[in-house]
Amino acid sequence: MKTRAFMISLFMIILVPAALAADGLRALQSLKGARTLDVSAKQFEPESVQGKPVVVAFFASWCPPCTDEFDEMAKVQAAIGDRPVTFIGINLFEAWGGEKDPARMERFIARTRPDFALVDGSPDISAAFGTIDRIPTVAVFGADGRETWRFVHERGAVKTHATAEEIIKALP
Q1: What is the pLDDT of residues 75-96, one digit of tens each?
Q2: Rounded to whole angstroms, how far apart are CA atoms 79 and 99?
Q3: Which residues fall within 8 angstroms of residue 59, CB to CB, at 6 or more apart?
Q4: Is the pTM of this model over 0.85?
Q5: Contact 72/164 with Cβ under 8 angstroms?
Q6: Is 91 helix (H, G, I), strand (E, B) or coil?
């Protein structure tokens, strides 16, 4: 009986965190080759974030709480200074309620002025991060790829977006 309890404890201490880290690294790898939403349309390279904490925000240009969330991410960037943290915005559900509107995206970028990569999302990318079905959603990953925190905006919730304080606290 003691051996069984020891083996279960060993599994929980060693294997479960390793699996969680692998899932985070796999999710970040899903961004390889995804088009960024800037003028140059450069590809995002996941290798550039290896060994660094990563903050991922899922957004759409039509989403009012996403604007607030980008403001909070700018506060985080200002607060952490030169700390090696990578921020990524992943655009999902852009065509919800109709067609994609490039002018709307341009207005969103001009309004929020993100100082981080914005990636064009896809169902595969959403699935890699645990099937994102609500925006805004923010996930924080440690340098080892392990997810340390997640905020998901719930329908009808009073709290509509993650705060800078929450994101900073979640950074390892």
Answers
A1: 999 999 999 999 999 999 998 7
A2: 37
A3: 66, 69, 70, 89, 90, 91, 92, 135, 136
A4: no
A5: yes
A6: strand
